Amino acid sequence: MEKQNIVITIARQYGSGGKTIGQMIAKELNIPFYDRDILRLASDESGINEALFARLDEKLGRTNLFHVSKDVYEGELIPPDSDDFVSAKNLFNYQAKVIKGLAQTESCVIVGRGADFILEDYPNAMSVFVHASREFCLNAAMERNSMTIKEMEKYIAKTDKYRGDYYKYYTGHEWTDARNYDLCLNSGKLGFEKCMQEILSYRKIRFNL
After folding, report:
1. Domain annotation covers residue 1
2. Phi and psi dihedrals of 28, rounded to 5?
């Protein structure tokens, strides 16, 4: 019988199947799965229109903000009467508040959003990074999208660069550094099912289930 809420955070390269593996785990454990749902929950929490959270993601992906500065998350919220209430920093702060709230109230799987860093001091959270070879990610992505190979290669590179820049901007760490995570799994070598099994095995050992 489990005595605590256990949160599994998953960071992943585009095309590695990290999201799919997360969904498989959530289904296996019968627990909630969160991805971009975090934006909706942060909107509900803050009263800030959800579209602003989504537009921020798009805007940051098109600018050089990530390259010229850092805004490492420290946990504070900016009050509504401040000019910075809807700033990139505060929108991230509200996402972080939601993620912490989830960790305190339920077992779940959270993909992306820097959740591993936000919950790094939470004893009930475990973090996973899913990666694969360039060829594996490309082939997997091509199965789901109608792009040429060159277009998809550019899209994967752009997406992973954004994820790495986003992570470094808000955490101060390198996204692909294995030291940030409890587990790093190569889905191209293991396959999705075995990745799930490895994560569940670690969960069982780590939390004495």
Report:
1. no
2. -60, -40
Structural domains of the chain, count = 1
In angstroms, the Cα distances linking 40 to 51, 53, 64 are 9, 8, 26
Domain for residue 26, yes or no?
yes
* CA distance to 134, 141, 207, per residue, from 13 (Å): 10, 11, 27
Three-class HEC string of the chain: CCCCCCEEEEEECCCCCHHHHHHHHHHHHCCCEECCHHHHHHHHHHCCCHHHHHHHHHHHHHCCHHHHCCCCCCCCCCCCCCCCCCCHHHHHHHHHHHHHHHHHHCCEEEECCCHHHHCCCCCCEEEEEEECCHHHHHHHHHHHCCCCHHHHHHHHHHHHHHHHHHHHHHHCCCCCCHHHCCEEEEHHHHCHHHHHHHHHHHHHHHCCC
Collect all residues with Cβ–Cβ distance below 8 Å to 131 and sequence separation of at least 6.
12, 13, 16, 176, 184, 185, 186, 187
Note down the domain range covering 150: 7-206
pLDDT, averaged in runs of 10, over the chain (209 residues) = 82 95 97 92 85 69 53 65 71 89 95 94 96 94 87 92 88 93 97 97 95
Q: Which residue has the tokens 């060159």?
A: 150
Q: Is 20 exposed, middle or buried (0-12, 13-18, 19+ CB in 10 A)?
A: middle
CATH code for position 188: 3.40.50.300
